[in-house]
Amino acid sequence: MTLAAKIALVPPLLLSLLMGLTMLFAPDLAAEGLGGFNGATELGAATLRADLSAFFLTSAIAILGALFAGKREWLWVPVALYGLAAFGRIIDVLFTGLGAGELQPIVVEILVVILVLFARGSRRS
């Protein structure tokens, strides 16, 4: 993997780690940024801790595997996770229209996919 590819993986890695750890250890803080998701209930906090932290931390682990263990094929994991998240958001926009704040996460998810695909395509060590 080239140096440029490794650098391209830093933002997706940091985003995934930050979001995953926030979901796991500070679900109330995470809920504030989710546009009305109710993390204040027991079920809401459990969903953030379990489901959403798993999404982000799985992505982070896969990126770490690619960076430090040379497992470039693991980069398909964040591509699939963030790509499907963006797809789901786009479907939501088609059904309900573009609401306030909905464009930013779509752009971020697509940028993550682009950065990870760029790194995945890198061949040199």
Structural class: mainly alpha
DSSP helix count? 5
Q: Which residues form runs of ≥5 with pLDDT under 50?
A: none
Residues in helix, %: over 70%
What is the domain total for the residues?
Answer: 1
Strand segment count: 0
Rg, alpha carbons? 15 Å
Report on the biggest sheet. none
Q: How would you describe the shape?
A: globular
**Beta fraction:** under 5%
Mean pLDDT: 91
User: Helices and strands, in N-to-C order?
Assistant: HHHHH
Distance between the termini: 4 Å
Describe it.
With 125 residues, this protein is mostly helical. The chain has one domain (3-121). It has five helices and no strands. It has helices at 3-25, 27-32, 42-69, 76-96, 103-121. α1 (3-25) packs antiparallel against α3 and α4 packs antiparallel against α5. It is globular. The termini are close together.
Describe this structure in a few short sentences.
This protein is an all-alpha fold and 125 residues long. The protein contains five helices and no strands. It is globular, with a radius of gyration of 15 Å.
